[in-house]
Amino acid sequence: MTKSTPLSQNKSRAPAKMPTRNSRRKGPLRRTRLSRTEIDTLFARLEEKMPEPRGELDYINPYTLLVAVVLSAQATDVGVNKATGPLFAVADTPQKMLALGEERLREAIRTIGLYRNKAKNVIALSKRLIEDHGGNVPADRAALEKLPGVGRKTANVVLNTAFRQPTIAVDTHIFRVANRTGLAPGNDPLAVEQGLERVVPERYRLHAHHWLILHGRYVCKARKPDCPACVISDICKFAGKTL
Questions:
Q1: Alpha carbon distances (Å) from 78 to 72, 93, 111
Q2: Model pTM score
Q3: For this structure, is 92 an active site residue?
Q4: Active-site residue 26, yes or no?
Q5: Marked catalytic residue, from 49, 153, 226, 234
Q6: Location of each CATH 1.10.340.30 domain in the chain
Q7: Catalytic residue (one of 49, 140, 171, 188)
Q8: CATH 1.10.1670.10: which residues of the chain?
Q9: Residue 210 and residue 53 in contact, taking contact as beta carbons nearer than 8 Å
C-alpha cells in the first residue's frame, strides 16, 4: 500500500470562569485569534479544496513510513522518495533492514542529508522494534518516542498517517500557518500543537495535519505567500498579506 500525493489571545489575568453553554458557542476560543465560526469555515474550505489530503512521502507499510519520516528530517520529501524507492524494494521490514546492514543502508541513502547518523538510527530502531515490539510499529506515542531517532513530530506523523489517529505533527509549515492565520499562535512547536488540539473541531481533526502542511507548503509559503490563491485569505489575520 503506497500512499503519496498530493490558522485574540485573552491576556487577562483575572481568574478563569467555568464556561457556560453560551460562552462555548460564541466568541474567540482561548489562545486563538479566530472565532469558532471562522475556524469552522477555515477547515470547511480546506476540506472542499482537498477532500482526501495525503502526505507526500512514499511508503508501503507502517515500518517504511516510520523510516521515511526519520529520513525526512532536514530533507525534502522528493529527495527522500528517490532514495527510499529502491531501498524499500529490498528492505520493507525491520528484519530485512538489519539483513541489509548499516553500510549498505548508508550507500542507499547517501543523497539524503545527515545520512550517516540517520542510517545508525534506522538500524537501531529496527533492532528495538524486533526486540520490544515483535517487529511491529507500535501505535502509541510514548513507545514510538523511545525509538532511536524518533521525536514527537515523527511519532505524530506515524500515528496520524499509518494508524489514523487525530494527531497533529507541527513542522515548519504548520508552525507558520498557525501563527500567520491566528489559528493557534505559539512560540514553539509544542505550544502550537497544543493550541491546535484545543481549537480544531473534532470532525476535522483527522485530516487537519495534512490540510495545514500542504496549505503551508504550496500556498502560505515562507518567503512569499500566495494570498491571491488562498481560500482562507479573508479569515487569515496575517498583516503581511500579498493581496
A1: 9, 22, 11
A2: 0.84
A3: no
A4: no
A5: 153
A6: 62-163
A7: 171
A8: 32-52+168-229
A9: yes
Assign a CATH topology to domain 32-52+168-229: Endonuclease Iii, domain 2 (1.10.1670)
Phi, psi of 177 (to 5 degrees): -65, -45
Class of CATH domain 62-163: mainly alpha
* Cα dist from 77 to 29, 68, 91, 217, whole Å: 34, 9, 19, 12
Q: Which of 3-7, 53-57, 70-74, 149-153 has the lowest mean pLDDT?
A: 3-7
Residue type, 89: A
